[in-house]
Design a protein that fits this description.
There is one protein chain. By secondary structure, the chain is an alpha+beta fold. It has one domain: Alpha-Beta Plaits, CATH 3.30.70. The chain has four helices and six strands; from the N terminus they run βαββααβαββ. Strands 1, 2, 3, 4, 5 and 6 form a six-stranded antiparallel β-sheet that branches. The two termini are 18 Å apart.
Length: 119
């Protein structure tokens, strides 16, 4: 399985708009090779909020096809770009147990509306 970890810096003024936009990634549920995405907030000492989102994909090939064909279309439609101060994306290969552990991070206050599962 491929894990995509997305860490976004968001200032407090844009937190609600970011959250609304993040809740609009439901189109992922119909993308071939997508398994699940979940995320939430982690507060930082400098009054910024950090959004952490974990996406689980069947394979790197499925993820690459999504990035090439669907990602930018969805991203533009939900207008999330203006709400993000910084973004860091990391990709890693894990087994099913590793994916489950990442999706249950106790340091994150998960937002139910951010969870997307395969249709």
């Amino acid at each position: 399985m491929l894990i995509k970890k997305i860490v976004c810096g968001v200032d407090a003024a844009n937190a609600e708009e970011f959250s609304k936009a993040q809740s609009q990634w439901g189109a992922l549920s119909h993308v071939s090779g997508f398994i699940k995405q979940a995320g939430g907030w982690r507060k930082t000492a400098d009054s910024l909020l950090t959004a952490e989102i974990i996406g689980v994909w069947e394979s790197r090939a499925a993820y690459d096809a999504f990035m090439e064909n669907e990602h930018d279309i969805i991203y533009k439609e939900i207008e999330q770009k203006g709400t993000i101060l910084s973004i860091e994306v990391t990709l890693s290969q894990v087994d099913a147990e590793g994916a489950a552990c990442l999706l249950e991070n106790r340091e994150i206050k998960y937002e139910p509306g951010w969870t997307v599962t395969k249709a």
